[in-house]
Amino acid sequence: MCIPLLDRGRAFGALTLLSTDGYSFDGHRIALAEELARRAASAARNARQYEQRAALARDLQAGLLLPDLPDIPGAQLAAFYHPAGEGLEIGGDFYDVFARGDGSWAFILGDVCGRGARAATTTALVRHTARAVASLLNDPVDVVKAVDKALNERSSQQNNGFVTLVYGHLAPTSEGLAVHLVRAGHTLPLVRHADHRVDAVDASGGLLGIGIPPRLAARRFTLRPGASLLLYTDGLTECRADDTEQYGDVRLVKALAAAPRGSSAADIVRTIAEDVRGFVDGGDVEDDQAALVITAGPPEPGRD
Questions:
Q1: What is the pLDDT of residues 114-131, one digit of tens each?
Q2: What is the enclosing helix (H) or strand (E) of 95?
């Protein structure tokens, strides 16, 4: 007995049952086999849809993240991204690093409220707006204001809530890396000095895309050789162990400070990622996690 496996009326396989010793299938067993075939076809269809949806989410997420970080003179860059759940939805965390055309570079890391297709469109809007205006505006505050304007001009169908981010400009100098950044409602950037001290960059700024002009205050500082700037999303600090304790800011600072002297940007990212994985002990994370590390290398010869 062969019973077709159907998907929207089209056969994609068959359930075949064989009898032996002259045994025949009666009406009850035929009906049972038909029900079994129907359920098998439904399970196979759901599995294909799951796989297609997961592949679509992976492809779209990959398009929203950088395939490779650029090479910046006098700097090392490394990033970490871990999506929440089973990869069926596009997350709202993002980062980007790109040249501004005058020898300096722009960097951005942020978090879009929500998940899925709307979060993806908002992520793309933020990144493309920042890239479009970064070479035209010297003040990071003006770039972030342009992003906020673009977010507030979304239609109601496109609106996916608020955005938090850290955006800044980076330029190699004879003393290290000159950094000029602004924070808009995001987690505090951290600076790890060569002597393992960790300081927060206290730049104030409000949420973007809520219809209220954010009050933004940019900060300037220099990353000396061996120092690192860490940008991260709250998925890192708010992940939990056993549904109770959060990873928290204090543990993140300790992990950052504990990285061995002379660690590269990749070493620091690896240290933090391993500490977070050890904390959750194989458990699922409820929010996407992203981090970007910029480490100052030896000064570039001839830089002012």
A1: 777 777 888 889 999 999
A2: strand 93-99
